[in-house]
Amino acid sequence: MSFCRALGAALLLSLPSVLQAAEPAHVAAAERFLQLAHADQLATPVYAQVQQAFAQRFAEGGGAGREALLESYQAKANAALDSRISWKELKPQMLALYTDTFSQQELEELIRFYQSPLGAKVLQKMPMLSAESARVTQERVLEVAPEVNRLLNQMSAELAPKSAEEPVR
User: What InterPro entries does the record point to (predicted)?
Assistant: First the structure.
């Protein structure tokens, strides 16, 4: 077994003890916060993207009339995703993440905030804001990419060995 696999296995095996180290009330506060934040739906966009990828590949592959094949592979993909990113699989790690990051008091303050009208609005609007922020950032990255690539190429040219006629110092 490789070192990375052994380390990963050790970390996964220690996860329940990490949760046990946190006070039950602290873990309960983290769980209440995650429920309020609809954390159980974190993976939903991933499922949708995978389903769309299969549908696109199916259409590109001329699968018309063979929808049962698409559905079969989409179900297999869902099962693969479920084994790794279902809420049942993610929840222990999310609880550990939040109890390690926030004190019980901080979680209770977050809960109070997100139960307020403004907090509820933040929760409702955050997915759209995050997606739009990512879109705007991606547009800007695409705008600057040619300049960054030109600079990378310039640097590579300066780092490249000079022609054979020049003596190497």
Answer: DUF2059
The C-alpha atoms of residue 97 and residue 47 are separated, in whole angstroms, by 23
Euclidean distance between the first and the last CA atom of the chain, given in angstroms as a whole number: 47
Residues 143 and 123 in one domain: yes
State if pTM tops 0.70.
Answer: no
pLDDT tens-digit series, residues 19-77:
456 899 999 999 999 999 999 998 999 999 999 999 999 888 888 888 999 999 999 99
Q: What gap in Å lies between CA 148 and CA 11, rounded to an integer?
A: 39
Sign of torsion over alpha carbons 114, 116, 118, 121 = positive
Split into its structural domains, the chain has a count of: 2
